[in-house]
Please model this.
Amino acid sequence: MPTYKAPLDDVMFLLGDVFHIDRYGNLPGFAEATPDVVAEVLGAVGKFCSDVLTPLNRVGNTEGCRRLDDGGVTTPPGFKDAYRKLVAGGWIGAAAPVEFGGQGLPTAIAQTIREFLCSANLSFAMYPELALGASAAIFAHGTAEQKALYLPKLIDGQWAGTMNLTEPHCGTDLGQLRTRAAPQADGSSRITGTKIFISAGEHDLAENIVHLVLARIEGAPAGTKGVSLFIVPKFLAGPDGALGARNAVSCGSIETKMGIHGNATCVMNYDGATGSLMGEENRGLQAMFTMMNEARLGVGVQGLALSEVAYQNAAAYAKERLAGRAMGGAKFPDKAADPIIVHPDVRRMLMTMRAFNEAARALVLWTALKNDVAHRSGDADERQAADDHMGLLTPVIKGVLTDQGFANAVLAQQVFGGHGYIAEHGMEQFVRDARIAMIYEGANGIQALDLVGRKLPKDGGRALQAFVGAVAGHIEEPGGNAALAPYIAPLDLALGELQQATAWLAQNAPGNPEDAGAGATDYMHLFGLVALGYMWCRIAEAAQQKSAMGGNGTAERMNQKLVCGRFFMERMLPASSAHLARIKAGAASTMALPIDAF
Amino acid sequence: MPTYKAPLDDVMFLLGDVFHIDRYGNLPGFAEATPDVVAEVLGAVGKFCSDVLTPLNRVGNTEGCRRLDDGGVTTPPGFKDAYRKLVAGGWIGAAAPVEFGGQGLPTAIAQTIREFLCSANLSFAMYPELALGASAAIFAHGTAEQKALYLPKLIDGQWAGTMNLTEPHCGTDLGQLRTRAAPQADGSSRITGTKIFISAGEHDLAENIVHLVLARIEGAPAGTKGVSLFIVPKFLAGPDGALGARNAVSCGSIETKMGIHGNATCVMNYDGATGSLMGEENRGLQAMFTMMNEARLGVGVQGLALSEVAYQNAAAYAKERLAGRAMGGAKFPDKAADPIIVHPDVRRMLMTMRAFNEAARALVLWTALKNDVAHRSGDADERQAADDHMGLLTPVIKGVLTDQGFANAVLAQQVFGGHGYIAEHGMEQFVRDARIAMIYEGANGIQALDLVGRKLPKDGGRALQAFVGAVAGHIEEPGGNAALAPYIAPLDLALGELQQATAWLAQNAPGNPEDAGAGATDYMHLFGLVALGYMWCRIAEAAQQKSAMGGNGTAERMNQKLVCGRFFMERMLPASSAHLARIKAGAASTMALPIDAF
Model:
C-alpha cells in the first residue's frame, strides 16, 4: 500500500531560500505568512494527507462512487469523514479573500496544499478544487448578491461547485454547444440540456452543489459569441443561504473510466433548471476562462503531485527490493542480493522523477507568487508583468507538468517490475489517475496551441520577451561563479534553441499557420525544459549559498539539490535539440497525406 | 467499440517488395509460401481477428477470468468458442515443425499472425503464444520422448503451456529462486514451491496445460548455477498422450491487475507435483532463455500490435469527430465543424503512430526472416550471421517496440480527448493492456542491459559490426538516387551518433561499468531509431521502385509510404541526438547520491 510524506522541507527551501517570500511582505496576506505559520499550516495539511487521505486513495479506487436510484451519488467510504476534517482545518480557503471567509494567505500556500492533497488522493482533492474554481469565477464575474450568497459557503466547504462545459458532441469546440437558457420574467433563466464529463457533478460531501453552466440564451448568435454562463445550484437558496427547493438538475449516470474512480464523473441533465446569469450575456466563454486558467494551473500541479507520490513509493521499493549485485561488486554482501537502487538504470528512473519534481515545484511556486503580484500588488506595471507571466506559463505548466507527471508515474511503476502492474502496490492506480490530467481542462494539444497561437503573439510578444529576459539576465548575472557553470551553460544553449524556435515560428507561421500547429507541442515542451532548467539554476544558486552558510546536515541536503540539478542539465535538458529540429521541420510531412489515406 | 482491420496489404508489400521473400526459396517451408498461400492464410486470420476476436476484447476486459472454488479458472464468455476456431484454423502451428504437426511456414507468417491476434485481443492471444513458447523450449531441449508426447498437442492447440519463473521475492534475479525439486526413484521429480505472475497459468481453453517450471534440485548449488527446468503437466499423461491423474499443481489465486483482464495471471502452487527434468541438471536458465528469446520477440510484436489497433481507431475517430476549423479555412463548410484530423497537432499524433507501425513491422519481418535463416539454412556462416542478428535485435525489438507501442496507445487515447478516458470507446483498455509488454519477459531496463552488457561485446562485437555494416552499406549503395537523399542523409547522421555512442561506451564502460548501465536505455532507443530509420530507407527505396512500375492506385499507396518515411526522418529520428548526449554524460550525476538520500 502506498505511503506519502509531504515534501515540506523542499517547499520551505523554495519559498524561503530560492524565491525569498519575505521580500513580498508589502502584498496583502504575506505579512501573516511567516515561516512559522506556513510550516504549521503545511505541516498540518501534510499530516492529514499522510494519515487520512493516503489510505483512502485505494478505497476510492476500489469502491468508486455509486449512483442511487434517486439520482443521488455516494462517495467512497471514508470520504465524507475526511471531507469534514478538511473543512474543519479551514484549508480549502487558505488563499481565498478574507472578506468572504478565506484566510487570504499567499497563493503559493494554496498551491502547495493542492499539491499535497492531490499526491495523497487525487479523486478526493478534486472535490474542493472544483469548488475553488467555481468561487474564482464568481469572485471575478458575479454580482454583489451572487458573491455574498455563494462565496462564503464555497470557500468554507459547506457547499461544493462544478464546471459544466462539455456536451456529448463538443468539448474543445464550445461554439457548438446546445444547452439552452430561457429567460424568465423574474430575471432567472430555465436551463435545459445535457452536460457530460462533469467532475464532482453529484456527491454527498456538501449540502449544496453550485454548478456553473455554459448555455445559449434563446435567440443568441450561433457559435462562441452566443454562449452565456449561469449559476445553477442543486438546491435553490434564499439570500440568507437557507436551502430551498431541489432544482431540476440531476445526475443521469456516472461514467466508467480509466481512473480517478473516487471522483464522480457525471452526465448532468438540466431539465428546465433555474439558473442565474453570471457576467454579461453572450460573454460566458470569457468568464469561464477566468476559471479555466486557475483550473489549468491546478491541473499542472496534479501532474507534479502524482509524480511526487509515485517517486516516493518507487524510491522506497528500490531500497527494499533485492535483485542482482551492484556493477562494481556487492554493496550489501550480507543480503541475498543488493537492493535494486544500486543499479544505474533504476537510478536513472528515480533521478528523472526527482529532478523533474523539484524544478516543477519551483515553477509552480514562482508562478503562484506572480499570481499574487498580479492580483494584490498596488503597482499597475508590476501587476501587468505578473499577469503576462501567468498567461504565458499557464499552458506550459498545465501541458508539460501533466505530460511529464504521467510519464513519471509510468517510470515509477516500471521500477516495481511485475509488482507495478498488479493492483496491490497501488502504482498502476497512480498511472491511471495521472492520465486524466493530460486530458481535462483542455487537452495538452490545446495548451500547446494556446501557447503558440495566442500567448506568444499577444501584445507584440511582450510576455515572452520578459520571460526570455529574466532567464537571459540570470545567465549573464555578474558575479556568476564557476561552480554554477555546469548549470548555466546548458541553460544558455537551451535558451538559444528556444529563441531559434520562436524566430522560426515568427518567420514561417504567418505564411503557413500549419507550421505553428505542427510544432506547437514540441514548442511547449521546449519551453518547459527551459523553464525547468531556469528553475534548477535558481535552485543551484540558492543551494550553493545555503550550503556555505552551514548548519546541521544542510550541506548534505543542499548537495543533493546540486546533484539533481546536474542530472537535469545532463540528462533531461538535451531533449531540447530534438524539439527544435521537429519544429523546424515544419508541417509539410505532417499534413501531406489526404484525409482518406488514414 | 473499437474495430480492427488486419494490415494485410502492408505485410504483403514488406514481404514481397521490401524483403523479397521469393529469394529465400531454398529454405525449407518457403517454397510452399507463395504469395497466394500467404495472402489466403493471413486473410483468413485477419477475418477471424476482425469478426471474432475484436468484439471479445471488451468482454475479456469487463468479465475477466474467474477462479472457481475447486481451483479451476474460467476464461471470459466467448473465449472457449474463439479458441476452438483458432485451433480449427491450424494457425497456432503455422511456422512449427512439420514433423510435429506444424505447417512449417516461414516465421514471418507466424509473427504476422501473432501481430493480428494481439491487435484484436491481447489477452486471448497470450494463451496460444505461451503454448508456442513452451513448445519452442521443448523442441530445443526436450528428449525424444518429451517431444513426441508434448509437441504435437501444444502445436495443434489441444494442450496449452506456460512459463513459471517468477517467485514472490524474485523475478529478474532468478538465482534467488526457492522452488525445489526432489528426485524420485522413477526418474521423475517432486516440485514444491510458489510461482507468481504466471500468465495463462490455469484456464478452461485446453484439456491440459504444460507448465515449464524453474526449480532447484535438492543439493544443487545456490544461485543461478543450481537452477533446473522441469516439465510439469496439469494432468499426467501416458506416452500415448492419454490423460491420467491430476497433478499436484493448482492456481491459488488470480492477480487483480491493470489490464489484460482476459488472461488469467495466476499464483501457481506446486505441492510435490510430478515433473520431468528437461535438458541438463542445473542448466535450466540456459534452456529457459531459448524460450525467452522467442518470447521477447513476441512481446515486441505485442507493442506493435497495440500501436496498430490504437492507431486505426484514433484515425477513424479523428475523421469523424467535429471540432474547430482547419487553420487555412473550413475544409468541410457544410458541417458544423471540420473533423479534427484537419488539425496539425492531431495529425502529428496519427503520423507518429503510423510512421512507427510500418517501420516496426518491417523490423519484425526482417528479423523473422533472419530467424528462419538461422534455423533452416544449410550454410553455417549464414546461420551464424542470422543468429547474431537475432541476438542483437531481440532486446531492441522487445524494449523499443513495447515502449513506443505503449506511448502510441497513449497518443491514440489522447486523440479521443475525454472520450479516450472513459471505458466506452475502448482506448483506455489499449493503454492498460499495452503497459504490460514493457514489463514482462524481462522489464525493458533488463533488455537495455542485455543489449549493452551482453550483446554488444559478444564475439568481439561481431553482431554489431555486421548490423552497422548493413546500414552503412545501404547508405553508400552505388546508384542511390537523389529522391532518396531525404531518407539516407538523416539515417547517415543517426548511424554516426550510434557509432559515437558505441565508441564512447567501449572506451568508458571497461573502467566504469556504471557508465554502461546509466546509458543502456538511451543506447537501446538510439539503436532502435537507427534500426527503424534503416527500415524506412528500405521501404522508401521499394516504394519508389514500385510506384514507377505503376498499377491501379499503386502510386498513391506508395506515396503514402514515402510521406510517412519523411515524417519519421524529420520528426522522430531527431531524438537520436538527445540519446547520444545522455549516454555521453556518463553515470556521475545518476549515481552520485547516497542511497539514503532517496
Observations:
- The longest helix of chain B spans residues 284-320.
- The longest strand of chain B covers residues 265-278.
- The domain at 290-584 of chain B is CATH 1.20.140.10 (Butyryl-CoA Dehydrogenase, subunit A; domain 3).
- Chain B touches chain A through 96 residues (CB under 8 Å).
